[in-house]
Amino acid sequence: MKKAVVLGATGGTGQVIVSELLNRGIDVIAFGRSKEKLNALIEEHDHHPKLTYELGDILDYKTIMDAAKNVDVIFQCANVKYQEMESKLLLLGESVMKAADALGKKIVVVDGIYVYGHQVAKGDENHPHHPHTKKGKIRVDFEKLIFSTRWQNAKALIVRLPDYYGPTSQNSYLQPTLEGLAAGNKTSIFIGNLKTPREYVYLPDAAKMIVNIADKDDSYGENWNIPGAGLISGKEIIKIARHITGSTKMVIPLSKNAIRFIGLFDVFMREIVEIMYLTKEGFVLSGEKYEKRIGALPKTPFKEGLGITLKSLMFKENVK
C-alpha cells in the first residue's frame, strides 16, 4: 500500500487510521465534509507532506470517486448518528461500495459488534449473527450490502471493534466518564453497570491491527474482529482515572431505566436504550484469527492507555 484515502478522517477512528498510515510512510488523503475540521487535522500533523485532504459528502459516491481514484485502499471510517441509522446507514454503504466498485478498489469498512446480539459462543468471526435489536438488524443488512455479489470489482473487508477509548475518541460510551473526570470539577456519569467486566480497545492499537489487515491481499472478502487488551470494570476504570487526574468528584452510573428517562428529552440517549444489554452482559471478541494469520495483538495496558487519553483530555480542558 502506497496511498490511501480515509473516509470520515476527522472522526475518532478515522484520525488514528490517518496517523498509523502516516507513521508507515503511506500517502494519505483525508476525506470529509468540514473544511475547518480537515484543516485542524492537517495542523495536528504539522502539515505533514504526505497528508492532504479532499472535501466531499459520504452519501455522494461521485465525490468519493474523485478523492479515491489514485489510491490503493479506501478506509471507510465514516458513520451516521444513532438516530439516523435506520434512514442513512444503508445509503452510506451503497455510496462507498458504488465508488469502490466503479474504481475497482480495496475497501476496509470499520464497524461494531451489534450484528452478534447476545454472546452465545466464543466471540470469533463465526459467532451467530442473531441480533435482537433494531440497530443490530440494520447492521446485518449493512454487512450483506458490503459483501453483495453486485460488486464485481471492489474487494471489501469488515473490521469489528468493541467499545473503545483513546485521545481521538468522540462518541464512545466511556467518553462522558473520562471527560468528566478529566474536567475534575464536575460530576461525571458512567453508562451501564460499574461492576460488569467489559472489553475496550485502545484506538491506536485498533489502527495498527486494521492497517495490518488491510495490507494483506488475502484478508478481503472476510470479517475481522479487533479485540481489546482484556476485560475491565467501570469501577476499575474510575479508580485508575482518579489516580491520574486527582479528581474526587462523583461518578453516577446510569441504569437502563435512567437512560430511558433521559431519552424522553434527548434523542441520542433514547437510542442507547436498546443496546444497554452490552453494558450489563458484555461481549468478548476473539483475536485468534488475527494472531494466526497476521501476528501478535497490540495490547496497550489500560493504565497506560487511560493515562494518555486522560492527559489529552486534561490538556484540552486547560486550553478552552
TrEMBL record:
It holds the Pfam family Epimerase. It comes from the Bacteria. CDD domains: SDR_a3. Residues 5-226 form the NAD-dependent epimerase/dehydratase domain. PANTHER family: NAD(P)-BINDING DOMAIN-CONTAINING PROTEIN-RELATED (PTHR48079:SF6), PROTEIN YEEZ (PTHR48079). This is SDR family oxidoreductase. It comes from Oceanobacillus kapialis. The lineage of its organism: Bacteria, Bacillati, Bacillota, Bacilli, Bacillales.
